[in-house]
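Homework help board

Subject: predicted structure for assignment chain

Our instructor gave us this sequence and asked us to write out the predicted structure in token form, then describe one feature. I got the tokens but I'm not sure how to describe them. Can anyone check?
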Amino acid sequence: MVWQKGVIKAGKEVAKIMAPDVLNLGAKIGTEIVQKQMNLVKIPDLKDVHVDEALRVLKDELNLTPISAIANPSLAYAYESENDVMHSEPRFGSRVDPGTTVKVYYLTQEVIDKSKNLLGNVVQEFQVPRIIGLNIYEAREDLEGLGLKVTEKLEKPHLSFIGKEDGQVTRFTYPNDQKIGSKLKSGDRVWLYYLNEEVILESTSIKDKKEKDRQETFGKIGKVTKDVTKEIYTGTVDAPKNIAKNIKNPFTKKKVSSDESEE
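My token output:
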């Protein structure tokens, strides 16, 4: 109908007018998102740092709003030192807006003594927890909460780490990479392996180099094959003359001698 055609035509005209504005709006939103991500502040790993120093770093160097709080007794704190930071809210490694309030939990001697009493009364054996794939800070907190002593180890670059995340836990073992069985007990020391952005980037570089070497190898093979084919076709290949002659003239009949013809 006529009115329908008119509506469609009008809609097309409106779309022509609005399209640039929509594109500009999308670009603006995208730029704002990227800019916001760039402005985010990563809370550093402040574990075992003196509480006063931790508060100074968060406030003066990172423009955050830190407040301190005393941690509750835990099996994890039995071997720690007074005034050391244990964890924070939001967690270490979190990315937050400038000015965000960060609560820093630290130890007093009273908390440490109570934690030692907990450990003395409860030496328990338990199933190995599932922490592979967790963030390093979360995994460490979980393990220490079970009374384990945790040593962090940064992985070396490897192809299997491509596509992984910064801070991701890859494995954990007893010291010197001894394999952990199905159970652990409070007081055990474990090594916790994890990734950072640098290791992930270097792992990607290894893949790129392998692919480049592979392409170069195929290129060399292709060139050699092409050269050999050309030499065979032209008869210049370094081979016995009779072979080259037969290849060049495959259908030449053998001349029969007069003696053979008489027979």
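Reply (TA_rk): Your tokens look well-formed. For the description, you could write something like this. The longest helix spans residues 2-39. That's the kind of observation they're looking for.
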